Each structure stands twice: as structure tokens, then as C-alpha cells.
Amino acid sequence: MSNLINESFKLPCGQVLKNRVCKAAMTERIAKGNNLANQGHINLYDRWADGDIGILLTGNVQVDRRNLEGPANVVIDKNNYKEQFDSLKAWSEAGTKNNTQLWMQISHAGRQTPGEINSSPMAPSNIGLKIPGKNYGTPTPMTEDDILDVIERFVFTANIARETGFTGVQFHSAHGYLLSEFLSPDINDRTDAWGGSVENRARIHLEIIKRCRQEVGDDFPISVKMNSADFQKGGFAPDDSIRVAQMLENAGVDIIEISGGTYEQPKLIGVDDLTINPKRSEQRKESTIAREAYFLEYAKDIRNAVSLPLMVTGGFRTKEAIEVALQSNVCQIIGIGRPLCADPYCVKKMIAGELETLPSFEKTLSLGPSILSPSSPFTIIKVINAFGAMAWFYQQIKNMAKGLMPNHEQKLFNAFRADMKADKLAIKDYLENN
Predict the structure, then answer these.
(1) Dihedral sign (CA 176, 178, 183, 184)
(2) 279 Rama sector, left if φ>0, alpha if ψ -120 to 50, beta otherwise
(3) Is 86 helix (H, G, I), strand (E, B) or coil?
(4) Number of compact structural domains in the chain
(5) Hey, what's the torsion of the CAs at 187, 193, 197, 202, to 10 degrees?
(6) Three-state secondary structure call for residue 334
């Protein structure tokens, strides 16, 4: 078997990655006080940097505290960057040891801001989320000045990332957050220069990238995480993603990460649909499941249209599948997420030949059965299990932030309860500080 996983790779900007693995972005939700980076981030990324991973991508670092993915996100803005400057530097020092790249994922939650944080979050249009039982407010359509302000915020945060020692940035334009909302015609119904044609819908991305490149220089990696599709009727479609990828390449992006789905259609966690409309569900192809990687088929179509490096995240578990994907040249970087919560050193072990399969949910956790039957055909049961599993992984991130190792004995239901409690405390902390 080939060993491309451990080969170095040179990005268009000239920076060299020590291998072909990226720790995919996973929201940490461990910020303190005024949404500040702290010792928990340092502990967590120090642990992952010991894992022989080429790139560590942070979770959502937010540009606007009024529009967050979660209450304990790190926020970097002109009001708080000075008080966390030293913590950000310490975070980057921990995350870049062992010749590791540490890239800051920069994001704005848009209409997916929880209602407890903002009952009228900013978005391209006033089209709200359709998720029964979830608290998301009706969005406030952004004015031209709001859009220009968001562009400034993305560029400002990218500048702080470079100043504090992060070695690259990724702009989050997937999973239904603000930038991907602009791309999606079923969410962005604007009739001005920021809506309508795919060129207009991508305009905010191109403005951010152009300004960012001017500020951070030509040698600093800029990545974009982009949906291959929203999997929504009338949403961002594969043909659009190909066209946007071409625009991003022309704008000077170094690598595109291919993902997919939104809160309403979360393919990224293996659930088909959270909406109440069954017609919006689209089944994954069996060939894609067989290849492990959820979005590799979509990446293949994008590869035929662009030459810049691609990264695919989601579902990779075996070294064989990773090597086949890299050998195909469809993608140059493999994103690994949840296995690195269960074992922060699993990639290092795979590269060393100590294991052939990364830890999976079923094999890693000492849970007994799931909350409900994992083979149930009912969407609601699949959703409960999926979000219960997510809670378990969130708890392992929090364990490592405390300087501990993952706790494989933690039961699923206990993790779910602990995660709900942590969210409530984080909301309380956020409201007290804002």
C-alpha cells in the first residue's frame, strides 16, 4: 500500500505541510468571559499538536458576538482582541509545535444563531430556519453597510490570526452559516448586487479574499470551506459549487475544503433531514458510503473544473480508503474530525503503521446500546442518536481542554446531559457579559 498520507505537500502560497492530514474544524465551545481564548484552547491544541497532524483547524472563531454558532465561541473583534492577544499567541505556540500548521477557522453564524443569543440575527434575507422545536429567530436582512461591515470583520480577524502566530485561515462557507447563506438561492433572495446570479451570491467571498490577501500577504494560506451542495430543494447545487470553486481559485485561495449540508439537512452528521417536509430528503449514494468519504463524489466533479488543492472531510476511517482517495488525486488533503476526539494520537499511530482503522463511534465508546435503536428507520430516533453522539465528542474536547485524555467510559446519556448543562451555563455566561 502507498504511504501518501505521510508525504509533505506544498500549497500554492509556498507553505509546506508536513503530511496530508488536517484535523477538521470542530466547534470547541470553551471560550470564557467576554468570549475569550483561554488555557483550555492551549491545552487542547497542545495535545493535538503531539499527534503528528499536518494542519490543525480551529473551530468557529466568530467575527460578530451578536451572531454566534454557540455561546462559548471565541470572538475576535476590535473591542476584545487586546485582552486576549497573549492567550491567542499562547494558543498558536501550542498548536504549531512539531512543525504543525495551525489555521484559524473564521465564521459568522448568520441565521443559525441560537435564539437565546439573538432573536433577530443578521442574514442575507428574512428567511428563517424550519426546524421544529428549535429556537431560531426570524433573520434581519442585511443592509449594504452591514455587508461591508462583515467583510471588514473577516479581514480584521484574519489579520489578528497572523499577528498572533496562526499560520493560516479558513473562511467558513458551509453548513448553513452566513457565507454559505449568501451562496444559497433558497435563502438569499436579494435583488441587489449581493443576490441573484451565482456571481453576485459569491461576491462577499471574493471581496473578503481580495482584501484579506492584500492584508496578510501572498505567503499566508487562505482556505475556504464550501458546501458541495445544501441538499435542499432550490438550494446551493453542485453546478453552483463548481462555478464558485473556479471563482475562488481565480481569487487566489490555496485550498478548498469540500463539505455539505445545513442545520436543516445535516449530511455532515449522517442524518438526512431535520425538516418536516419528507420531499426534501435525498439519500446518499451507496458508492459514496462504500468509499467512506461522504463528499468525495462531489469533490471529483470540482476537481475536473479546478487545479487548486482540495480537502475532503467526513467519514474517512481506514488507511486504505485514505490512500485510495489521495492516489486518485481527487483531493490532496484528508480531513479527520471525530476520531481525533476519541484518540488525539490516532493519526500518528496510523502513520506509524500501528493501526489501519481510525476509531469509530461504535468501536470507541463503552456505551452499551445507543439511547434508542441505532438501526431505527425513524428520522427522529436517528436525530436523537446523532446529537447524542455529538455530545459525547463535545465532552471529549472539553476533557482535553482540562488537560485530560478522552474518557471512553463516559456513557452517551451522561454525555448528553453534561453537554446540555454546559450549554445552559455558557448561555448564562454569555448573557452576563453582553
Answers:
(1) positive
(2) alpha
(3) helix
(4) 1
(5) -70
(6) strand
DSSP string, 373-426: -TT---HHHHHHHHHHHHHHHHHHHHHHHTTPPP-TT--HHHHHHHHHHHHHHH
pTM to 2 decimal places: 0.90
pLDDT in tens, 355-413: 999 987 555 444 433 333 444 455 555 556 667 788 889 999 999 999 999 998 888 88
Rounded-to-integer distance, Cα 55 and Cα 225, Å: 14
H/E segment holding residue 13 = none
Query: CA–CA separation, 344 vs 43, rounded Å?
Result: 12
Q: In the chain, how long is the greatest CA-to-CA distance?
A: 56
- Extract the C-alpha cell encoding 201: 451570491
**Nearest alpha-carbon partner for 210 in 199, 198, 192, 222:** 222
Span 137-165, pLDDT tens digits: 999 999 999 999 999 999 999 999 999 99
Query: Would you tell me the crossing angle of helices 203-216 and 144-163 to the nearest 10 degrees?
Result: 30
Task: Assign 267 to helix, strand or coil.
Answer: helix
Grid cell at residue 307: 487545479
Quick check: is 378 in a domain?
no
In a domain, 365, yes or no: no
The crossing angle, in degrees rounded to 10, of helices 203-216 and 238-251 is 30
368 in the Ramachandran plot: left (φ > 0), alpha (ψ -120 to 50) or beta? left
168 contacts 101 by C-beta, under 8 angstroms: yes
- Between CA 178 and CA 194 the distance in angstroms is 13
Query: What is the arithmetic mean of pLDDT over 212-231?
Result: 89
Check whether 268 has a pLDDT greater than 60.
no
C-alpha of 46 from chain center: 20
Three-state SS for 367?
coil
For 170-201, the DSSP string reads EEEE-TTSHHHHHH-TTT----STTSSSHHHH
Closest alpha carbon to 61 in 36, 95, 34: 36
- 347 within domain boundaries: yes
Query: Pairing state of beta strands 16-17 and 9-10?
Result: antiparallel
Q: For the CA atoms of 263, 105, 57, 361, what is the dihedral angle to 10 degrees? A: -10
Name which of 398, 418, 397, 272 is nearest 344 in CA terms: 397
CATH number of the domain residue 159 falls in? 3.20.20.70
**Contacts for 223 with CB less than 8 Å, ≥ 6 apart:** 103, 168, 169, 170, 171, 253, 254, 255, 256, 257, 311
List the beta bridge partners of residue 334: 21, 312
**Is position 121 within any domain?**
yes
Range of the domain at 181: 4-358
